[in-house]
Specification:
CATH class of the largest domain in chain A: Alpha Beta
Order of helices and strands of chain A: HHHEEHEHEHEHEH
Largest interface: A-B, 54 and 54 residues
Helix content of chain A: 40-55%
Distance between the termini of chain A: 65 Å
Largest sheet of chain A: 4 strands, parallel
Strand order of the largest sheet of chain A: 4-3-5-6
Number of helices of chain A: 8
Number of domains of chain A: 2
Structural class of chain A: alpha/beta
Strand content of chain A: 5-15%
CATH topology of the largest domain in chain A: Dna Topoisomerase Vi A Subunit, Chain: A, domain 2
CATH architecture of the largest domain in chain A: 3-Layer(aba) Sandwich
Number of strands of chain A: 6
Oligomer: homodimer
Chain lengths: ~200, ~200
């Protein structure tokens, strides 16, 4: 029904997460009103993702160099490593601007049910970094789920005997949320993690 | 914070309607997991929109030829013209597969408050088509708003004296909607448009 180039762009938009048929059509038609320069830069940006994106050889973050900008930044404290599941998670913590250490991206969580073992997750490189940089603390910022807990326990275990403190970010009630809607396990964690006021 | 090519693609996604900062970031990161071929076809599709999309010289629909596929289809009845605001509206009616006439895209609605007069809307070509094709009926499928009503009244007026029937699609209560939530003007139209059962 549409010209073939519109069908093609609809198909491409539909490949994106959360974009269904109707939204893809709306986005495709919006492109018709873009000026030529904006369409060129859109296309160029996709090609750049295709050709330039690599994973940082140190921490596993995405980068267009061998090392990512954070690993290259000599002003950052290499004694503390923040461990996250996905490269995108780094941006969440960078935006709140409270952490000046380094990161390590696991690229996944251990999940025996899905056949994902420790060897499928970027843990070996983490251990090497801890040894070579004399890391003092690693902060685990993984989601509190069965996979997240399993991964945290595994990391804790393989680091036993090494002189590194292993912490995890707090599990509890998010700001602004009514306690009524919080599940039992989170409440239990929140109670365990209570603090003096 | 992100590699520059990721920032570029985030900016491009943010140009799309309904895509904010967070969604743009999520879409950009999803591209990293696309294989190279899919990224190439995505980029190619955008370039095709840039270079190939034109407006049909007859009806104003989008096309990659001089005339759109509907105007080129000799099996369609050229005595009835369905008048829509946007090229995209055509697909809505084509999908329900009940209309075998031709279309005409106005490309906008008359809106004196926004400085959009009849000369800014593709009405002259509509009149020429009515004359040259001996059109018997035009069906106005414009949205029932002040601009839509103004445009419909204007078209009705300029066609006075010509031997063409001018109709509009019904305004009323959408299927499945509780009457309680319908505005007064729609109710009035629905009452006026009542039919024997």
């Amino acid at each position: 029904m549409f010209p073939s180039c519109i069908n093609d762009i609809i198909e491409s938009f539909k490949d994106l997460p959360g974009i269904g048929e109707k939204t893809a059509e709306r986005l495709a038609f919006s492109l018709i009103n873009f000026d030529k320069d904006r369409l060129t830069s859109f296309s160029d940006a996709i090609i750049a993702v295709r050709d330039k994106i690599k994973y940082c050889s140190v921490c596993g973050n995405i980068t267009d160099n061998d090392k990512c900008s954070i690993c290259n930044d000599t002003n950052r404290n290499s004694k503390i490593i923040f461990v996250v599941e996905k490269a995108k998670d780094i941006s969440l913590f960078e935006k709140i601007n409270v952490f000046n250490g380094r990161y390590h991206v696991l690229g996944g969580l251990i999940s025996p049910l899905d056949g994902i073992g420790p060897e499928d997750v970027n843990i070996d490189n983490l251990i090497k970094r801890i040894d070579s940089d004399n890391v003092e603390e690693i902060i685990l910022a993984l989601k509190p789920s069965i996979e997240g807990e399993t991964t945290m326990q595994y990391i804790k275990k393989v680091l036993e005997g090494k002189n590194v403190k292993v912490t995890r970010i707090a599990t509890g009630i998010p700001m602004g949320t009514d306690i009524e809607y919080i599940d039992a396990m989170t409440l239990e964690f929140a109670l365990e993690g209570r603090k003096d006021i």
